[in-house]
Amino acid sequence: xxxxxxxxxxxxxxxxxxxxxxxxxxxxxxxxxxxxxxxxxxxxxxxxxxxxxxxxxxxxxxxxxxxxxxxxxxxxxxxxxxxxxxxxxxxxxxxxxxxxxxxxxxxxxxxxxxxxxxxxxxxxxxxxxxxxxxxxxxxxxxxxxxxxxxxxxxxxxxxxxxxxxxxxxxxxxxxxxxxxxxxxxxxxxxxxxxxxxxxxxxxxxxxxxxxxxxxxxxxxxxxxxxxxxxxxxxxxxxxxxxxxxxxxxxxxxxxxxxxxxxxxxxxxxxxxxxxxxxxxxxxxxxxxxxxxxxxxxxxxxxxxxx
Length: 306
Description:
Elements: E1 2-5, H1 18-28, E2 33-36, E3 39-42, H2 59-71, E4 75-78, E5 81-84, H3 98-118, E6 123-128, H4 137-148, E7 154-160, E8 176-179, H5 192-213, E9 217-222, H6 245-259, E10 265-270, H7 294-303
Parallel strand pairs: 1-2, 1-10, 2-4, 3-5, 4-6, 6-7, 7-8, 8-9, 9-10
């Protein structure tokens, strides 16, 4: 998988005039996939249900952008998220009533599985970084079975990098999905060699895990902000206020060099391509997007020329 995520932060982002432009820019990097992230929200970590807000992509907008993506020659992964209205970490969701939560979640996720099937989506994620709930094998087996009853494409789950070993249901899915935000050092660096070395023990562990599970591993997310020190906390939007374009590019280079060609690795979907006008809380020059930065040229070198 050679992909980018194009998240939505508003109801109509995916129907905006920029949508087609972004998708064609993504395709021009050599990418062959794009991921979309309709997001539902909880008010509290202990709530037993989730709801839409004005930040939830509408179904019509999803159908629109899936069609645009296919027209641009891109395959699609649909990866629904659950977030918190006040911005807490979704990994901390621990509902007071797990049965009720999973009943509500099953309805949400099967709705998107039906939408995905009806619109020719190629790949689907049954969940993202729900570490407080992902150990519940029986509930997840039911969720996955219900998704499979509607969607015949490839299924994964996007586990955080510190969560994937504790997932009990990989055998129910087609791919192991990991959001690959491993810290690669304690200090900022643009040394690709050092960053590649930092990946080596992680890659060895992943190779072993893949062999034991008999599933390939997809990096459902990976990315770095354009900030000095990004490699120390890849999961953070706010590492520093100093520009780190060179560090971002080095991190992209190191990841692709460390994993490209490994038979157990199914590829990467970078977080993220670009932000919609007026949507980004982080200025573009400091944000995760590689667009118009040296990291975009790294991607083009690896993907457009291979």
